[in-house]
Specification:
Elements: H1 3-32, H2 40-67, H3 74-98, H4 101-107, H5 125-189, H6 193-212, E1 219-220, H7 221-236, E2 243-248, E3 257-258, H8 264-273, E4 281-289, E5 293-301, H9 307-312, H10 315-328, E6 333-340, E7 345-353
Parallel strand pairs: 2-4
Antiparallel strand pairs: 1-3, 4-5, 5-7, 6-7
Protein name: Sensor histidine kinase
GO molecular function: phosphorelay sensor kinase activity
InterPro entries: Bact_2-comp_sensor_kinase, HATPase_C_sf, Sig_transdc_His_kin_internal
């Protein structure tokens, strides 16, 4: 049985139990404590009143509140509540007259005959107030249920929006990464065929990771680090001896779960803007992890020809990664990006609190 069906069955049983409790206590148990003999017609009237009040509850809950009150027609709702209560009171009094209940109660000795007894009021105030009470309870419960339903729908829509946005961001990151990598391999084929074959093998392994591992919302840190290592090795194939690359991997004691493809844009940005074909440079990448957090510290050299690019932004991958961090780890990450013009160094410091 689905969760929704179980919830509906539970709600139905709760309604049955509450109505039985209300009917037995107020409409049947209390009259029974009066003592004496009550005619069968009295219990028939009480049963009819019980059915009328149940009808008032669900008429208000299922029809009047959603179609009148929730459409901001407050005056119409008040008018409907008054008309329904008056009509139900009239039906209860008519039932009493049809059953000749007053005469039967007098004969049963429950009321003494008094000469010049004042006439009964046109409207039974007790029944009218009872109808208003049921209407009020029904309105309150319906309003709370509607608020809860709206809250659940808003939460579901927000989750769907976040999920769709994350899928779009990953779809934008992946082609961006492969476009740059394929360009590098294409350039390498003109220089070293064997190295280009090795590069294609690493790329195919990375593609399997992207196609299969990144479909889930989370992946293990060890797999993400292996993916970064493959990328670094792939990028080093086209570097000259002037560029020094240092990678300090984390010591993974207990494998953690992180969002896939989260570290790559920062590494990719370092290789894109941190090397030069004519000047010496360096890239330093350090990843540290413990049971509660993950830290990435990355430094790379910058040059005058790519400084403007860094100031304007770091491309599709970096901007999307910022957005993914906001969605996946709201208020649980620290990202610092700084450029030291005097030292010619660009630095990224990222800390994610996983727990």
């Amino acid at each position: 049985m689905k969760q929704t069906e179980r919830n509906r069955l539970f709600t139905f049983l709760v309604h049955i139990m509450l109505w039985l409790l209300f009917g037995l206590l107020l409409l049947f148990y209390l009259p029974w404590t009066w003592g004496g003999h009550l005619p069968p017609e009295f219990w028939i009237k009480q049963t009819i009143i019980f059915v009328l009040l149940v009808g008032v509850y669900y008429l208000n809950s299922l029809v009047i509140v959603p179609h009148v009150l929730q459409r901001n027609r407050f005056l119409n709702f008040v008018l409907a509540a008054i008309l329904v209560s008056v009509f139900v009171t009239y039906l209860a009094q008519s039932t009493e007259k049809v059953l000749h209940l007053q005469e039967l109660m007098d004969k049963a000795g429950q009321q003494r005959r008094i000469e010049n007894r004042p006439e009964r009021p046109v409207i039974d105030m007790f029944m009218l107030l009872m109808s208003f009470l049921v209407m009020g309870i029904s309105t309150s419960i319906a309003a709370v249920q509607n608020w809860q339903r709206d809250a659940r729908e808003r939460q579901l829509l927000e989750q769907q929006k976040v999920s769709s946005e994350l899928s779009l961001l990953k779809a934008q990151i992946n082609p961006h990464f492969f476009f740059n990598t394929l360009n590098n391999i294409y350039a390498l084929t003109h220089i070293d065929i064997e190295s280009s074959r090795n590069a294609l093998h690493k790329l195919s392994r990375m593609m399997r990771y992207v196609l299969y591992e990144t479909q889930a919302p989370m992946t293990f840190l060890s797999k993400e680090v292996s993916f970064v290592v493959d990328y670094i090795e792939l990028m080093k194939l086209r570097l000259t001896d002037k560029v020094k690359v240092k990678f300090d991997p984390p010591e993974i004691v207990h494998d953690l779960e992180i969002a896939p493809m989260l570290l790559l844009p920062f590494v990719e940005n370092a290789f894109k803007h941190g090397i030069s074909s004519f000047e010496p440079g360096y890239i330093s990448i350090s990843i540290r992890a413990d049971d509660k957090s993950l830290e990435l510290d990355m430094r790379n050299s910058i040059y005058s020809q790519n400084r403007t690019i860094l100031e304007e932004g770091s491309g599709i991958g970096m901007s999307n990664t910022r957005r993914r961090l906001d969605l996946l780890y709201p208020e649980r990450y620290k990202l610092e990006i700084a450029e030291n013009r005097d030292a010619g160094e660009f630095r990224v410091s990222l800390k994610i609190f996983l727990l």
